[in-house]
Predict the structure of Transcriptional regulator.
Amino acid sequence: MTPIFKVDHTNCQDCPIRHRAVCAHCDADELEELEEIKYYRSFEAGQTIIWSGDQMNFVGSVVSGIASLTQTMEDGRTQMVGLLLPSDFVGRPGREIAPYDVQATTDLVMCCFRKKPFEELMGTTPHIAHRLLQMTLDELDAAREWMLVLGRKTAREKIASLLSIIARRDASISKKGNSGPIVFDLPLTREAMADYLGLTLETVSRQISALKKDQVISLQGKRHVTIPDMGRLMEEAGDDSDGGFLV
Amino acid sequence: MTPIFKVDHTNCQDCPIRHRAVCAHCDADELEELEEIKYYRSFEAGQTIIWSGDQMNFVGSVVSGIASLTQTMEDGRTQMVGLLLPSDFVGRPGREIAPYDVQATTDLVMCCFRKKPFEELMGTTPHIAHRLLQMTLDELDAAREWMLVLGRKTAREKIASLLSIIARRDASISKKGNSGPIVFDLPLTREAMADYLGLTLETVSRQISALKKDQVISLQGKRHVTIPDMGRLMEEAGDDSDGGFLV
DNA sequence: CGAGCATTTGACACATGTCAAGATATGTGG
DNA sequence: CCACATATCTTGACATGTGTCAAATGCTCG
């Protein structure tokens, strides 16, 4: 059933996330140790990778595709609490039980490590532990940034915030000149966007239509977005338009 | 002006947060190194400890009292993104500029470390780095828990969630038998609660009145709260009442 | 070509925000 | 110790943004 997507590299040296993932700071020796406990897994869009409450017997990195972390209340209300992009880390060393659902939002490849050996490796290779601390602190900042969005922004600002985050990420990968229009594909359905933003999918749809009418964005099809003026979008997001963002 | 509150211990061995803070796993030698770069600072309720955008030249632990992290938009909307209790860590090794305001919500004592030496110590004493990773992962979980509150809960559920968090914390410190009424003082003004919950202070006030009318809570004065039935409160919070909480 | 999703749009309800007044605590100076 | 001044909190009336329910439209893929 599960299709195996191509992993077009075989060793860590050629890995596309080599310099950004949890293994970023590792030297050749350390990589060799990681190679021994790693394996690739592929998931198709929509598949659940880990169920909240499950035993977690691996941790790992997203190699390609997008995954989401979601929490669900008993009555079915759900909130996405994290969006995992290539190089992001999944799982928590030292914890047995998964606290959220992890789902593949798009087709996805993960580089997994068996949990026990990985935890042991953490103790002996400070480079891994240190990198994981950095990444966790970054995620904490991102989560707090998102708390402002959820708690204080209007629906329109929420949509603009989400679009500018995705646009910024795409820009940081494809390194275009930073003026001129930005173009990308939305990797999320309206429902996923709603779950991320704490809105309903109807409100998401309405606000996207409104932004389109006001020419803040334009759409080709449902998913292909063009942003003629990034500064304008960031104003709509309620952020400082001078983009004061520290990477 | 700034009153100096009593710090009734002089060395780390007698410190009330010795076994919970970033130094928890340190052995005697490591503590000695920390002693050399530490100093205490006191703040009175309402004082700002660090302004967003400021240079940060120290990191540290909350010894007593409560601090809050807040983000502010240009038009003045503010969202609290973290509540720091005794033993919680302030600041981020490897970062120059503070991303949020840090304020003393109550009178507060911090155990500060000069940033540079602390960062060096992190490199040489894995116990500190490891503990900081643990604590950061815990904070990340708390932040994500809070994203569900902000994004999906009603005003009444938000208030109940906040009360149950504070109640749970107080219970974990004062270790009462876990049935029977719980009593505590609210350390937050209605406005601070509103900023934490993404509400207005009027809505906070109304919902507290409503919970009081429905006998979920009772008040003696404005700040002194009694919870006759913790399970009931957690139902109101929309959480599983069987308290499925992993410490 | 038709079935099944994803998305858009409309009408209406309701929760929460806004603005304004009063009430209750808290502290200060006479 | 009292009286006033100030901050905090409560309550009311009304406005509005977002949710809910329902139907129509547009895609995608067998």
Q: What stands out?
A: The interface with chain B takes residues 69, 71, 73-75, 77-79, 81-82, 92, 94-95, 97, 99-100, 123, 126, 129-130, 132-134, 136-137, 139-141, 143-148, 150-152, 197-198, 238, 240, 246 of chain A (CB under 8 Å).
